[in-house]
Amino acid sequence: MDLDTNNHSVFLLNYHLVLVVKYRRKVINDKISNRLKGIFEYICPKYNITLCEWNHDKDHVHLLFRGSPNTNISKFINAYKSAGSRLIKKEFPSIKKQLWKEYFWSKSYCLITTGGVPIDIVKEYIENQGMK
């Protein structure tokens, strides 16, 4: 098991995040998912976050990421959802026609720490999203 460190601590903080498109609209394809992932990876360093795994289905994305003790997870998620929504609607204007109002992401999200399940099982679960 690889542990992360900073000046004063050793830690392993893995999170499984699920973000859902507003009204469960089926607007995510490979191209949009890749752009959403790129936005995520751009924002990560500002919050001491490392992306471990990413996958999507047509109406949601699954992420596995690592944080640090000083990471403000809720601020990070809100920053990502805001930037992702704004950029995706700007770069893929056809999405606006499929959504009501100006929202891309649902206000809610699912965030689970992965301490109770072996990380390989979570990775496999995320890798198999959208395979049905």
TrEMBL record:
Q: Which residues form the Transposase IS200-like domain?
A: 10-129
Family annotation (InterPro entries) = Transposase_17, Transposase_17_sf
State the name under which the record lists this protein: IS200/IS605 family transposase
The gene for this chain is tnpA
